[in-house]
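Colleagues,

For the teaching module next term, I've prepared a clean inverse folding example: a structure given as tokens, and then the sequence designed for it. I'd like students to try predicting residues themselves before seeing the answer, so please don't circulate the second half yet.
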């Protein structure tokens, strides 16, 4: 960072720290104790849509890596696109396999980053639910290295449960690196894995 950057108030962006994802299993214990939300068994990695043979090769490599690690024949990672044109690699596990789900998300992010697709990575999310049908995602912002909660209201088109999001922030501030700038708590409407 140079003198001109300091004078103009520019800051150096935070480097992604994918190891922050490994804090999710312990944060899930805190989350359950504070709010009653438990893992839903789904997570996803979102990135700007990439076309071409290079990305298809990376997708096959990630699939093979996770298949070998999981020892199963059903695909643990599914590629989908949302209505906004973003691509998602979705992993599904049983709710009690949160550490394995986190490993899947870390592996997908790492593989995409290693193959040069880091600039396209946007976020990763892990889904949670409670006994009443409410859903919650803990979203990891790749370019900021921080988490934030996203809680859509059930049965309402594109409305958030802001009170729940703030409650989750307070409960997890000692477990996860929480994004302090609320304007960066982007809604992820219709995100697979939520």
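(Answer key — instructors only)
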């Amino acid at each position: 960072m140079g003198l001109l950057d300091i004078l103009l108030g520019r800051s150096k962006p935070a480097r992604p720290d994918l190891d922050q994802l490994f804090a999710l299993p312990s944060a899930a214990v805190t989350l359950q104790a504070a709010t009653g939300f438990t893992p839903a068994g789904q997570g996803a990695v979102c990135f700007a849509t990439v076309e071409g043979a290079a990305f298809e090769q990376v997708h096959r490599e990630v699939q093979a890596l996770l298949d070998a690690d999981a020892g199963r024949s059903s695909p643990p990672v599914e590629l989908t696109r949302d209505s906004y044109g973003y691509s998602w690699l979705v992993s599904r596990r049983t709710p009690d396999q949160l550490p394995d789900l986190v490993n899947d998300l870390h592996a997908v992010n790492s593989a995409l980053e290693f193959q040069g697709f880091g600039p396209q990575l946007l976020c990763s999310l892990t889904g949670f639910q409670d006994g009443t049908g409410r859903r919650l995602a803990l979203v990891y912002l790749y370019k900021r290295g921080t988490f934030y909660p996203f809680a859509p209201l059930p049965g309402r088109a594109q409305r958030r449960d802001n009170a729940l999001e703030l409650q989750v922030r307070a409960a997890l501030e000692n477990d996860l690196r929480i994004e302090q700038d609320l304007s960066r708590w982007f809604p992820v409407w219709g995100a697979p894995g939520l």
